[in-house]
Amino acid sequence: MKNLYIDFDGVILDTLGPVYKLAKELNLDYKTQTKEVAKLFSKIDWEELIEDTTDINDSINAIKKLKNSNKFNISILTHVNSLKEAKAKIKYLDSMVPDLTIIPVPKDISKTKMTQTSNAILVDDFSGNLKEWEEQGGIGVKFTRYKEDDCNYLNITSLEELINIFD
User: How many CB atoms are closer than 10 A to CB 105?
Assistant: First the structure.
C-alpha cells in the first residue's frame, strides 16, 4: 500500500474562496500581507465556515472509495493557522470519514517536515507544496477543479482518479 496524503483546503473543501473573499472585503492582499491574513484565519469561526462549505468534486465520497480500495494508507495533511482551525477540520473529517489520520501542520512549517515523503503521494492544489514534496522524494499530484493543460504535475480533478492511476 502506498502512503497517500491529501490536502484539505482547496482539495476536500472550498474553504479558501470564502476566506479570500473576506480578506478582499477587508482590503487585505493574501499574497503580500501574510501576517494580516494569518490573523484573519485565526479569527474565523472554522466550524461555521466548514459547515457552510461544500466539498469539491464529491471529495468526501471519493475518499471513502479510496479507503475501500485498500490501495492506500490515507492521511489528511493540512496547514492550519490556529488550534481552532485544526479542531474544526478534525471534527468535520471524523464525522464524514471516521478513522482517518489527520495531521495538522502549522502554516509556517513545510508539510515535508511532518511525515515521510519518500515514494509517498501528496495531493495538493498548491504547486509550492508539491515542489517541496517532490524535492524530498515524494510523488506530487496537483488537484484542480478542471484539468490544467500546462501543469508540471500529474493533474487530477477527482480524488477517485487515484485508484486507477496507482495500480
Answer: 19
Neighbours of 84 (CB within 10 A): 16
Cell of 20: 479570500
The answer to whether the CB of 14 falls within 8 A of the CB of 54 is yes
4 burial via Cβ count (<10 Å: 0-12, 13-18, 19+): buried
CB 145 within 8 A of CB 127: no
All domains of the chain, ordered by start, with CATH? 2-13+54-165 (3.40.50.1000), 16-51 (no CATH)
Reported as a single tens digit per residue, the pLDDT across 82-138 is 899 999 999 999 999 999 999 999 988 999 999 999 999 999 999 999 999 999 999
142 vs 151: CA distance, rounded Å:
8
